[in-house]
């Protein structure tokens, strides 16, 4: 049997904490609250075409996480009337993951140089809803149980993959925005992915759609 | 879920190729079915008995339309209950026209009736008796016999079963009613639904790889099941 001797080194803390007498408990709590609410300020605005959420969608978003690898967007979309009875409005909650960000201008040093960044992959998962009495969240009671095999005509779950190019504006040239991003995505929704597994004759090419958009970062 | 009905007729002994129902989610079976119909001679027209789509998206409507456009014969398509989901009925209307329609071929009137009452929560005039009456009483000099085609049959969960018996009574006004043809049930079935001799033919879905060809003769009709 081996006995291990452990030495515990106790260090005396010589320093004496200086009481912040000029900051009251109220002020600390206020600061904490302000910081919390400040985190809800959107970091960017988004505008996007198509993507199963309407001909045009616009909204706000938050980028967060280490190296801003995560984003959440909240969009309101517009579906024109075309041949239907009326135009429709959609709402989308979208999560994006951007694992890599490549600086295409690594030699541009100093605060007066713009940077071009390339984001080779974005992965998005989003839920959207369309407003109107024709669409139901769950099957109305007039139907027998599990009459239609899918969940809802009102909510769609979508997936998309894309790429981005970002202009990071030089520090001393910023007016309204810090970064401007152009992106495209290729995606599909749950119903179409389902038909991919049902019908032997539906291919990936039949169910995907292209979406393009821009993001304007202020923070 | 799309039902595709082929009704074709040939003159002089008036032949009608009867409805096939093709589930639309199963597009490849539908394509095979179209090829099988195309390989046959003397088909006058094809009737799809409804459910052109599974979830009534525009894309699905386009898929089934493209498959059916492969037919070498004229074709019509009824609206099925699946085609109503969301705003699918509006899509159907743009792509195919009215939900109730009729046409005359070889002095036989084919009345294609929307019977998907559950999709309206029974609030609409479905089945539309006024439409039936109009069809039974107009152009009567141009037809002697009638065939009624629908997606969902009486007594099914889509039909407004409160008017099942009234509906049957109304059919007595149809000049020379030969039989009724429907889809919806994904099976091939011949039944005397009301027990009074009026025959109802359920046309199977494409996935089950069979349909029927109806041949209308001067003194009746033949309806043959085709497997492909």
In short:
Chain A has 219 residues and is mostly beta strands.
The CATH architecture term of chain B is 4-Layer Sandwich
Distance between the termini of chain A: 61 Å
Largest interface chains and counts: A-B, 24 and 21 residues
The major sheet of chain A is characterized as: 8 strands, antiparallel, barrel
What is the topology, as strand order, of the major beta sheet of chain A? 1-2-3-4-6-7-8-9
Per DSSP, the total helix count of chain A is 3
Give the topology.
The complex is a heterodimer of chains A (219) and B (228).
Chain A: H1 25-38, E1 44-49, E2 56-64, E3 70-79, E4 88-97, E5 102-103, E6 115-130, E7 155-168, E8 179-189, H2 190-198, H3 204-207, E9 209-217
Antiparallel strand pairs in A: 1-2, 1-9, 2-3, 3-4, 4-6, 5-6, 6-7, 7-8, 8-9
Chain B: H1 27-38, E1 46-48, H2 58-68, E2 75-77, H3 88-96, E3 101-105, E4 108-113, H4 129-137, E5 145-150, H5 164-171, E6 177-182, E7 189-191, E8 200-202, E9 210-217, E10 220-227
Parallel strand pairs in B: 1-2, 4-5, 5-6, 6-8
Antiparallel strand pairs in B: 3-4, 7-8, 9-10
Helix pairs in contact in B: 1-2
Task: List the main descriptive attributes of the protein structure presented here.
heterodimer, A: mainly beta, Porin, eight-stranded antiparallel beta barrel, 9 strands, 40% strand, B: 228 residues, alpha/beta, Purple Acid Phosphatase, chain A, domain 2, six-stranded mixed sheet, two-stranded parallel sheet, globular
Report on this structure:
- The complex is a heterodimer of chains A (219) and B (228).
- With 219 residues, chain A is mostly beta strands.
- Chain A has one domain: Porin (Beta Barrel).
- Helices cover 12% and strands 40% of the residues of chain A.
- Chain A has 3 helices and 9 strands, in the order H-E-E-E-E-E-E-E-E-H-H-E.
- Chain A starts with 24 loop residues before the first helix and ends with a strand.
- The model of chain A is unreliable at 1-12 (pLDDT under 50).
- Chain B has 228 residues and is an alpha/beta fold.
- Chain B has one domain: Metallo-dependent phosphatases (Purple Acid Phosphatase, chain A, domain 2), CATH 3.60.21.
- In chain B, 21% of the residues lie in helices and 22% in strands.
- In chain B, the strands form 3 sheets. A 6-stranded mixed β-sheet of chain B has the order 3-4-5-6-8-7, with helices on one face. A two-stranded parallel ribbon of chain B has the order 1-2. A two-stranded antiparallel ribbon of chain B has the order 9-10.
- In chain B, helix 5 links the parallel strand 5 (145-150) and strand 6 (177-182).
- In chain B, helix 1 (27-38) runs parallel beside helix 2.
- At the A-B interface, helix 2 of A face helix 1 and helix 2 of B.
